[in-house]
Design brief:
- The protein is an alpha/beta fold.
- It is built from 14 helices and twelve strands.
- The strands form two sheets. It has an eight-stranded parallel beta barrel with strand order 3-4-6-7-8-10-11-12, surrounded by six helices.
- A hairpin with a 2-residue loop joins β1 (3-5) and β2.
- α4 (78-87) runs parallel beside α6, α9 (208-218) crosses α10 (235-245) and α11 runs antiparallel to α14.
Length: 322
């Protein structure tokens, strides 16, 4: 099912969530190849762009094969966020998303990410400033609330809509929950009932059946898949085939998982260099190899690998063992 966000029409409503250290260019391209209707960049510091930080600038790179792309910015100063949204408007992404859900201590202590949930008035000012500065649709990603005593996703969603947001993604957990416990789909449904802009449900979508259930239960317009896509970009194919055609596709073969893992490593090293690419992907590779027989000793080797050649060798060894 397609979905319209502002003036952007997307071919389907199953999105890859923004994830720091995970949803980089290489992984976004792979998820797009398996059907993701929209992919989000890792969260990017508006101040980092303003100060011309080299590493931050790298996060803005987009590949033709991953389009359409949403760029996710984080910050707490409406003027800076608006200025940066205007500055990068020429780039070939379709949507500007503002992070209001990151639970990381470093981000929260800087009054950014999910800390914004404690200040709905500032959220309104940010959305208004950014949506006034750019012609591209502006969306926000929020949480249920900051903690169990402050559940305000509905209030925040209304404020975001009133100030120009074109869509809102809701993670059904509070900041203090981080990623623990069960995502609250009731809050997603309440947000959907309270606004007229598209609502994207996020949290505990781990299978094609979960995707069907969250859409039916919350009546949300789309879904966002995060951690369940780590080492498993195949989930987009599985979800879309089931939602669109009622077909339960078989899980990826061991060969497909390993070949995709190798492709992911190659693309990451091409983009970031071998030294950084290998180290970043060590954890990610454990997800690709999860559930594969005889993988435990290979994972030990992968965690110690320092070159692309070594990673390819160990993954090929695993393929030969199966």
């Amino acid at each position: 099912m397609n979905i319209k966000i502002g003036d952007v029409i997307l071919e389907n409503n199953v999105f890859l969530a923004p994830m720091a250290g995970i949803s980089d260019l290489a992984f976004r391209v792979i998820c797009k190849s398996y059907g993701a209707g929209l992919v989000y960049s890792e969260m990017i510091s508006a101040k980092g762009i303003m100060y011309k930080n080299t590493n931050t600038k790298k996060l803005l790179e987009i590949d033709e094969a991953e389009k359409p792309v949403a760029v996710q910015l984080f910050g707490s100063d409406p003027k800076i966020l608006a200025s940066i949204a205007k500055e990068i408007e020429y780039m070939d992404f379709k949507i500007v998303d503002i992070n209001m859900g990151c639970p990381a201590k470093k981000i929260v202590n800087n009054n950014e990410g999910s800390a914004l949930m404690k200040n709905p008035k500032l959220i309104g000012e940010i959305v208004k400033a950014v949506s006034s500065a750019t012609k591209k649709p502006v969306t926000v990603k929020i949480r249920k609330g900051f903690d169990s005593e402050n559940i305000n996703a509905v209030e925040v969603a209304k404020i975001a809509e009133e100030n120009g947001a074109s869509a809102i993604a809701v993670h059904g957990r509070t900041r203090t929950q981080q990623y623990s416990g069960v995502a609250d789909w009731d809050i997603i449904r309440k947000v959907k009932e309270s606004v007229s802009i598209p609502v994207i449900g996020n949290g505990d979508v781990k299978s094609y059946k979960d995707a069907e259930n969250i859409l039916k239960y919350t009546d949300c317009d789309g879904i966002m898949i995060g951690r369940a896509a780590m080492g498993n970009p195949f989930i987009f194919r599985e979800v879309l085939e089931y939602l669109n055609n009622g077909i339960v596709v078989p899980p990826p073969t061991i060969e497909e998982k390993i070949k995709t893992a190798i492709l992911n490593v190659q693309k990451t090293c091409e983009d970031k260099g071998e030294f950084s690419g290998i180290r970043q992907l060590r954890g990610h590779l454990s997800y690709y190899t999860k559930g594969i027989p005889n993988a435990a000793p290979i994972r030990v080797k992968l965690n110690r690998a320092e070159t692309l050649e070594e990673v390819e060798k160990y993954l090929s060894e695993l393929l030969n063992l199966n």
